[in-house]
Amino acid sequence: MARTAAPPAPLACSYLHPGGGRGGLLGWVLTTDHKRIALLYLYSILGFVAVGVALGLLMRLELIAPGRTIVGASTYNALFTLHGVIMIFLFIIPGIPAIFGNFILPLQIGARDVAFPRLNLLSWHCYIAGAILAVTALFTGGGPPDTGWTFYAPYSIRTTTNVTLAVFAAFVLGFSSILTGLNFIVTIHRLRARGMGWFRLPLFVWSLYSTAWIQLLATPILAITLLLVMMERLFGLGLFDPARGGDPLLYQHLFWIYSHPAVYIMILPAMGVVSEILPTFARRTIFGYKAIAFSSMAIALFGYLVWGHHMFTSGMSDTSRWIFSLLTFLVAIPSAVKVFNWTATLYKGSIDASPPLLFVFAFVFLFMIGGLTGLMQGALSVNVHVHDTAFVVGHFHYVMFGGAGFGLMAALLYWFPKIFGRLYPRRPVYIALGVLFAGFNLLYFPMLVLGWMGQPRRYYDYLPQFQTGHLISTIGSWVLLVGLLILTVTLMRAARRGPWAPPDPWGGTTLEWRTASPPPVENFAVEPAVTGRPYDYGALGRGAAAPEGR
Amino acid sequence: MYGPVTSYPASVDATFYFIVAVSLFFLLLVTTLMIVFAVRYRRSRRPRAEQIEGHTLLEIAWTIIPLLLVLAMFHFGFEGFRALRSVPEGAMTVKVTGRMWDWSFRYENGREAAKLYVPVDRAIKLSMTSVDVLHSFYIPAFRVKEDVVPGRETYLWFRPQTTGPADIYCAEYCGQRHAYMMSEVVVLEAEEFEAWLAAGGEEGEKEGVPALLARHACLDCHSLDGSPGVGPTLRGLYGRQRALIVAGREETRVADEAYLRRAILEPDAEYVRDHERNMPAPVGLSEEDLERIIAYIRALE
């Protein structure tokens, strides 16, 4: 770390080692402290990420050559279903809000906790219950579901695999998401510190706020849809299966009315993280605060209106197709505005190329590829060609993994000293980033090419002309794994043995840096007063409250 | 790489490469700026940052310029799409049926085929439906795709401009053998096609039972040589004891003629234990063909 000053002694009564209250395991699983709940999410989510990564590696290994390599077609179909369900419902939807939203949001607005601490704990319990149900679905009934994470009817109605329980698991997980969203909205409205007006909110809070509205308003639609699938499977309701008078397109509409806004549940918080990290390491105020804040809200709003672009070849009416295409292009604008403002934030800054900042650079690059390939699919005639091909798979991994995933890693590196009260060494993290970045592009870029060549997705087997791309992609998956391992080992060691972190190791200006690392149970000894905007390095420069040594 | 050419793909590709060009420009612009700024304004060179809160004109510029560009993208995509959805007068219609996991094509004169034979330089309209779950009819070479939906009819059209074969894939996940739900479109010279079309049809030669089984997609799941598949093999099936699930209860029955008839016509009524219950009932299977199939299975030892 850059800072070489003598390490301060850790707080005797940080949230990690509080004086009173329940000790041991119960002190964790029954805690109502937002910081402890954040850590519960961190560990449970990372556990499922490991499973999801393993499933992904198995799929890539199977696809290294045409024909059967390690598993049969049914197993492969279960693999991509589970990979999708785990990565989406157990990792990337809760992801940043559940971990860093829980930990950082109350600190950033100067609150003691979230508005409803017990509801917060219930959210985590819902998450765990849903996760247990999802795992149970693998080993009971007709075996692991093989429908893809989208559960498209009528296949999901007819397959004999254990879809009913898997769908119920997603239903329960939905409640975790809804309750967290509700909690954050009320927290942001009611618990801001004195002087913290709406335009003094850190941009991470803005992003959580827009995300929370989507969670609250969109998730119930998914819950209802999944209930209907269960009823159709159990009682033969006949809503989605044409053999019983249902309509499969109805299912697709209902599913994507949630699942498209859910894409923004996944990416908006990562954008918030980027908007925190850039000013801190450029040591200057963010460029276009209001533009970034409003673009979050605009994305949340427009995100509701573009679900039809998942259905450009579904057989819905031509009129809806072109309207959805037009709206899809419009939702690209607020994302572009964010990227330009981030770039401008580096202009004439005083830049420290720290690990979190370099992860943000990687985020911007990969997210841009994800977004720009999204434009290609937004155009109707191009979409018809690449729809349901490997191109789509490449595209959404650039957005979800390159965007939300790298955003989550950047957030972890940025707030690591605050959460664990310890510092990590820079060099292995740089190496990890280099390997990750190379592996990522080797893994996913060939998918874009394969898709353009006509390789459909969810194919267990493929024709010889696609082999080179598949081979490169599989090799990339191994490189990526090495990067993930280096990063994990580095951070695990640092969390236990790293040097103690000062309260504000990066020179950040937002409120979380004004308390100890790790924070005490009550967060702040005295409720902090806010007198200006976040990222006000100008005021620091004038000597208003410059932390020592900066 | 793709095989025969139609003129529509050129317009799709032009739109695609236009968006690729714009994308590359912005990707390189932003990446270069990030790197240049990070190097030029590194802390060792520049210990104090300049505080710039924003710039209204810039905000307007980088909202309006991308907006115009994406509107252009929308326009090109829309124009291509309109061509794709406007079937010209006098197009030849072929009925397409998708099922797990096979395509079949039926021509106006009643001829059926497992491959899509079409004449060159003529508009072909495909009128498509599925008998079981969702499929998606995809010819990468022609840049056309449309989902095939049970209970409704969807369509697409194309005009092949050179002869030759091209791949047909199923692009919507449809279960275990989704990746094998392939066929071919074969573009023939006009006279060749007419000859092919006239050769088949209702008066055509009687096909063999294996071909009949293949046409009804039976062989996707049931082998004739005893090898295991999604469904039980047909070899040595006749006269064997079968462990069945009938109305949720297990029963053992002998696979006689009546059993085979039921198993083919109402596959869900009784099904073999340890196998999936997702065999579709055959569409348009005549009584005569059914009897031939049963006789064939009976002889298959």
Automatic annotation (TrEMBL), chain A:
Keywords: Electron transport, Heme, Iron, Membrane, Metal-binding, Respiratory chain, Transmembrane, Transmembrane helix, Transport. GO terms for biological process: aerobic respiration; electron transport coupled proton transport; respiratory electron transport chain. Residues 22-531 form the Cytochrome oxidase subunit I profile domain. PROSITE patterns: COX1, COX1_CUB. The keyword Lyase does not apply. It is found in: Membrane. One of its GO terms (molecular function) is heme binding. Pfam families: COX1. InterPro entries: Cyt_c_oxase-like_su1_dom, Cyt_c_oxase-like_su1_sf, Cyt_C_Oxase_1, Cyt_c_Oxase_su1_BS. GO terms for cellular component: membrane. It is a multi-pass membrane protein. The chain crosses the membrane at residues 38-58, 78-100, 121-143, 163-186, 206-230, 250-274, 286-307, 322-344, 356-376, 396-416, 428-451, 471-492. Belongs to the heme-copper respiratory oxidase family. PANTHER family: CYTOCHROME C OXIDASE SUBUNIT 1. This is Cbb3-type cytochrome c oxidase subunit I.
TrEMBL record, chain B:
It catalyses: 4 Fe(II)-[cytochrome c] + O2 + 8 H(+)(in) = 4 Fe(III)-[cytochrome c] + 2 H2O + 4 H(+)(out). It is found in: Cell membrane; Membrane. Keywords: Copper, Electron transport, Heme, Iron, Membrane, Metal-binding, Respiratory chain, Translocase, Transmembrane, Transmembrane helix, Transport. InterPro entries: CcO_II, CcO_II-like_C, Copper_CuA, Cupredoxin, Cyt_c-like_dom, Cyt_c-like_dom_sf, Cyt_c_oxidase_su2, Cyt_c_oxidase_su2_TM_dom. The gene is coxB. Pfam families: COX2, COX2_TM, Cytochrom_C. GO terms for molecular function: copper ion binding; cytochrome-c oxidase activity; heme binding; oxidoreductase activity. Its EC number is 7.1.1.9. This is Cytochrome c oxidase subunit 2. One of its GO terms (cellular component) is plasma membrane.
